[in-house]
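Aim 2, interim progress: modelling of the pyridoxal-5'-phosphate-bound target.
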Amino acid sequence: MNSFGVGLREHFLLDERLVFLNHGSFGACPKEVLEAQTVWRTRMECDPISFMMRVLPVAIRAQAEGLGALLGARGKDLVFVENATTGMNAILRGMVFEPEDEVLTFDHLYTAVDNTLDFLAKRIGFRLVRAKFELPLTNPDEIVAAVTSQITARTRIAVLDHITSFSGIVMPMEKIVAACHAKGVPVLVDGAHAPGMLDLDIERVGADYYVGNCHKWLWAPKGCAFLHVQPRHQADTHPPSISNYEAQGYPTNFDWTGTKDPSAWLSTSAGLAFHRKLGGRAVAEYNHTLVVWALQMLSEALGWMLVAPMEMIGSIGTLRIPKSEGSTAEDAAALHDYLVDAHNIEVLVHAHDALYLRISAQVYNVRSDYEKLLTAIKAAQSENLC
Ligand SMILES: Cc1ncc(COP(=O)(O)O)c(C=O)c1O
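Predicted structure of the complex, ligand included:
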C-alpha cells in the first residue's frame, strides 16, 4: 500500500477536486470495501432464502467476533445496528424510567441523542441534567468533576459521548465510568467516533452500554455500527424493532430485525482488513499528528481559539471562531457553503454558543489541504463571511 498522503486518494471514490476535511461526519468508504459489499449483495440475491435463513445468522456472529477481537470485547456481547443513533435509541427507548429519575449528560451531546433524551424527558417526565464545562479545557479532570458533581440519589443513568461531535474532545471515559460506578450510576457511552480513531478497549472503558460506528473511522460501508452490552444488562436489552427472534434474547434478537440489506455489517471484516493493510494503529497516529499541526497552524494564523489540550484530541479537532465573526446557525451555514461552493473545501462549521470550525485528518490528507483551507477562510473574511 502507498504511504500516507495524496497517493492514497486512488483507493477512494472521492471527487479529485474536493479538499475533503470532514471524514468525521460520514466517513469515506474505500473502493475495495465497497467491492466486498457487492460480493455479499450478489451472494444474497443469488439465493435469498438460503442466504437469510442459513448464511446470515452465522456470518453476522463471525463479523461480531472479528470486530470484538480488535475492540477488546467478546463477540457475543456485540450486536450490529445501522448507526450510532439507532444504538443509542435502542438503549434509551428500551429503558424503564420513572418520572422522578434524573438522566445525566453534558451540554456537548450530539444533536440526535440530545433530541432523543428531550423526547423521553417530555414523554416520561424525568429531569435532564446537563453538566457544563468551560472552553478551553485545560485538563481532562475538569470533565470528570463536571459530570460527577451533578450525580444525585436520583441519577438513573449517565449518557455521554466518548468523543464529542462538534468540539472533537476525547473524554477521559475510563475515569468518568469509574467515578459514576463508584456512585452506583450506570453509563451509556456514545462512542460514534472512537473505533479506529482511538486505541479502543471496550472492556477497559467498562461502560454498561457502549455504542460505536464502523462507518466513520473503521472503513466500513455506511450503515455499519455496533452496540456492546454488559452481560448483566443483556436480558433487558431489546432492538428498536422487536422481531421474529425476540424470545431468543440478546444477541439473536438484534441479528434479525426484519428484512433489510445486511451487506454493510458483513463488510466489517473488509474494513478491518483495509485498516490492517494501512498499518492499523499507524493510521490514528498519522491522523493525530496531522490534525494537531493543522489546528496549531490555523489557530496561530487566524487567532481562533483551540478548545482543548492536544492530548485530548484524536483525528478531529475544533477551533472556536470569535463571536465578532458570527454566531448563528445561518452564519455557520453561510461559511460552510462558501467554503464548498467557492473553494471545494468540505469542513464542518457548527453553531453552539459561538461558531466552531471542526477539521478532520485522514490518511488521504496532507498539510497543503489545510493551507488551502486557511487561504479560503481569509478570502471569506475579506468578504465578511466570518
Ligand atoms: C457523538 C456522535 N454521536 C452520534 C453520531 C451520529 O452517528 P450516526 O449518524 O452514525 O448515527 C455522531 C455523528 O457524527 C456523533 O458525533
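Residues 25, 83-85, 110, 112-113, 161, 165, 190, 192-193, 213, 225 surround pyridoxal-5'-phosphate (CB under 6 Å). The chain has a mean pLDDT of 97.
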